[in-house]
Here is the input.
Amino acid sequence: MNHPTFLRAKRIAFGVLAALIVIMAAATFLEHKYGTPFAVRYIYNAWWFGLLWAVVGASGIVWLRRFKRPLHVWLLHTSLLVILIGAAVSFFTSRSGQIHLRVGKSTDMYQSGEQVGSVEHLPFTVTLLDFDVAYRNGTDMAMDYTSHIRLTDKDGSVTEGTISMNNVLSHGGVRFYQMSYDSDGQGSILALRMDRWGMALSYTGYVLFFIALIWMLFSPHGAFRNLLRSPLLKKGLTAIALFATATLGAAAQTATTLPRDVADDFGRLYVVYGGRVCPVQTLAQEFTSKLYGAPSYGDYTAEQVVTGWLFWPDEWNKEPIIKVKSNSLRSEFALDRYSSFNDFFMTDYRLAALVKDYYYHGNRSSICKDAADIDDKLQLIYSLRRGELFIFFPTQQDGQSYWVTPTEAFGAESFSPTDSLFVRNVFGQIFQDAKAGKFDAVKQGIAAIAKFQQKHGQSAIPDAQTVRAERLYNAFPVATWLFRIDLAIGLVLFVWLLVRIARRQSARQPWVLGLAKGGLLLSFLALTYYVTLRTIVSGHVPLSNGYETMLAIAWCGMLLTLIVTLGPARHHSLTALLLSFGYLVAGFFLLVASLGQMSPQITPLVPVLSSPLLSIHVSLIMVAYMLLSFTFLCSVTALIVRISSRRDDDMQERLQVVSRIFLMPALTFLGLGIFIGAVWAGESWGRYWGWDPKETWALITMLVYAIPAHASSLPALRRPATYHLYILVAFACVLMTYFGVNYYLTGLHSYAG
Here is the structure.
């Protein structure tokens, strides 16, 4: 086989790979517009789409034969080929469907997932013996669903087993997964999948892929170890500038509310909120934050704000507490940045037409969306004033603990006559005492409710350690403080380093680097404390929503920076660069976490997310995004240096080396995270890959960043200027994967909150 053949194979491999990246990206937008069935039918399951993947795999192997490659490189590409083969086998041979069971009933039929309305037969009979739903104590939120089934083979042999979320039952080549259940609790809906060979091949490919990725980092002959030995790392580097931020607020007017100590007692009561039992303080802070954008209002605590709205609504209707972020709304209706409840009502509801357009006519223009956002805030106020937010009173029914609002308590039959009299009267009495200024009597009423809660809801009330952790968590909004501090320090460190480079001065200033390291360590400890408190309160590793993953990236960025700058600085400019990157990455992601689009509300995990594989999957991907953020900052720095200095060739090369040092482990963590996520999905609901938009964009991101890892085969990307430009553009994939999918596209992984 001659050289032109190999060259042609390389061009085909990278050309088709680029085409696949574009096609997959376009498919996610087409799915958003035309629906999932359209994208699946015309793209993901189309014969030509599979053929393109086959061409990439085959031409890539042909190109590898042209050169003598390390064994880990062969293993890496072979594992990907095995994964593709496994996917093909699954596509052509697997069967899937659903089976609906009722307690005491038997069936050997299931609804095929391949053809709507098609019924298939199992080689055995399935009987639902019992079905259980485990609820979180004191709430109606399910913690797990469990189906107890009997499987009877044709030869009469019987097997019994249980199926729950993340607990698969296999029998006769069929894997059963818990999906849903009937509203009366007497029926269960199971997913089933028959994919013995395709799943086995895919999982084998995953194992080989994991081994190859780890081997790639530690192989003494690998590209990563060669980068670490690069002499360019022994020379000085430059830094990067980002931005600092400030927040605006409005001063509270004088309004009536409870004294701070009385409101604090009210905040110590318990309430069912967000699917769990928590202190009223938590509800109050999130209520105030949603309205005002901060957990307090002027000199008023969140508890005072809530009790003010509750007991003196007419006065609080005049308070400029509702934050109006939209310039269009402010201009259209002559509103201030902070407006009052009354500002939205003249003769009638001023936003009515826009809100109707948004919800009933599907108008998704920015002004209609902003009006709907304000409408949500106004509805929240209505809910508070009607008492719907205060699920205060615990009771028992059918052996299950549940809590009711003061209004619901009037119709509850589960209370004893004495308790019924208490819940009917206590809140009304507190209201009267508050209006009359009898605050000692209000405290007594609050204490009576607290005693009632302890007596009747003890099993659902969090333990003292959890409550203490939650109150500390509420009292110190660490993320909000740290993003300002970290961005400011990162900016100052950048300016200092840039000035010294411009003056051709050494960055060897131990006291500066020592202060920077010490500050980052304190920042890291503060964030660790904050995350630890959140873990205690939530009862799970905080990686389940957008806010928590932002915290995770910031935490990982700080930790990595502390590790790589550990000990005395030998290369002072490089140390200063890394420290500035650590501050800026942490500050940026904490800033994003603090934005209004990401809800910090702590909620219990839904059953399917209660898996250790989820924590591993999300953690690895967050580390990868953090490392890719470092490569982006390297490229931004290179751009700044190129614009500001003509003597930049050497600097560009050094930055390229540093960037590639971040890139290699980023690809490793991203690859591991994606495929561990596939294993989790396979064990949770039987589908290890489903072309969900988040899955697709994660794969796109990995492929886009894998291209510069092939610099030995792509001479253009060996040039620093081209490499840095590519990395700048590639970071758009990270932004799209994390933010674009969450806030624009739809799918199973969209968690904008």
Remarks:
- The longest strand covers residues 119-135.
- The chain is about 60% helix and 10% strand.
- The two ends are 55 Å apart (CA to CA).
- The chain has a mean pLDDT of 81.
